[in-house]
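tool_call: predict_structure(chain=1)
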Amino acid sequence: MITTSKSKNKKTVSDFIYYFLILFLIYIFVNKALDISAFISNIFKSGLYSPNSARILAYFVLFIELGNIIFLVFSKNKGLKISFWLFIVFTIYITFLNISNRYEVCGCGGVLNGLSFEIHFIINVTLILITALAIFFSYENKTSFDS
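tool_result:
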């Protein structure tokens, strides 16, 4: 199959987004895991969870994020789809916290720690859009990331 310059560019964009997501998600995961007590505390501060529930939720989130990273590495298409839906769920969650006046600052870890809701929301929506773009380009080119 002859590959056009346009489809090569789309593949390059998809690949860039894919590798960016892997690095970004590993960075966030490691920061949360290394300072798990701060992550648990941030969840607890929302007022929605008891200390035990916050601890369970924190470990559950880490488990889901690690699973997502593993899917990205070993099954790129599935990993991108999981990432897309996780970003949507996280965005709905922080929006709910903001609407209910429970959002204080981002507790994602690393350079994202302490972000206002507005900045966190913009980052999440951007992640949703670029992940959707990577998925769209991979299907539009009729190429499989998994091959």
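agent: Helices lie at 5-34, 36-45, 51-74, 76-99, 117-140. Proceeding to next step.
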